[in-house]
Amino acid sequence: MSMKFRTLALVSVAMLGLSGCAKSLDNQLDTQYVARDVSTLYSLAKQSADRGEWKRAALLFLEVERQHPYSIWARRAQLMGAFSHYMGKEYIESVGAAQRFLTVHPGNKDAPYATYIIAMSYYQQIEDIQRDQRISEQARDAFTTLVRRHPNTRYAADARLKLDLINDHLAGKEMEVGRFYQQQRNWLPATMRFRNVVDNYQTTSHAPEALHRLVESYLALGVPAEAQKTAAVLGANYPDSKWYERSYRLIQRHAPQS
Fold first, then answer.
1. The model's pTM
2. What is the largest CA-CA distance in the chain?
3. To 10 degrees, what angle do helices 111-123 and 91-104 make?
4. Measured distance CA(233)–CA(199) in Å, rounded
5. Most Cβ neighbours (<10 Å): which of 31, 183, 184, 200?
6. Distance from the Cα of residue 92 to its chain's centroid
C-alpha cells in the first residue's frame, strides 16, 4: 500500500490518562454495554488499536459513538472505527462506518480520508480478471469521487495511481471476454468488447491489442474499410507495436489498398 494509514495525523491522538478502573476494564474481552466516561472508553479503544487488536478496537470505538454521541470523541471514534475495520480486513464494515461518517459530517476536514478508506476497502477486494469485476468498478467509482471532490489532497494523488491500475485491470477483463467471443467466432460481441477498450480505456496497456483485435473482427465481419481505418489508427498511435505489424500483414493479405 503506497500510503501508511498509521502515519496520518488524524489518528495521532494523544494518550489519555487511565484510572484504576480503566485498567481492569482493559483486561475484559467483551464490549457489552458498561457505562464509562468518554476518555476512558476512547483510550481503551486506542490501546486496542495500538496493539493491533482491530476487531476489539472497532467495537470499542463504536461504544464511544453509542455512549457519547454528542462529544467530540464520537466523531473521531467513528473514523477510527472505520480504520480499525479496514486494518482488520473487515471491508464491508469499514465501508459502512466510513459512509456513516460522511453522511453525518460531509464537510468535515477528514472527509477526504473517510472517502479514501471506502475506496481502499473496495480496492483490497479486487480479484483476478477471471472473476466478476463489480468490486473493481466500485473501487474505480470511489477513487473517482475522491479525485473529483478533493483533488488537492494527498489521498487524491494516490487515488490517481490506483485508478490507472484499476482501469488496466478492467480493460484486461474486457479483452479476455472479447478473445473468448473471437474463439467462438462470435465476431459482433467481440467487436463490442474491443471497441469498449479503445473508447474507454485508451490509456491502458491493452489499447494496441484491442485495435488489432478489431482489425481481425472487422475483416471476419466482411467490412474491410473499417479494418483499414482501425489499422491506420493503430499505426498512427503505436507504429512500433507488434500489434501494428500483425494488423499491417492482415490488411495486405485480406484488404489490400486499391
1. 0.75
2. 92
3. 160
4. 13
5. 31
6. 13
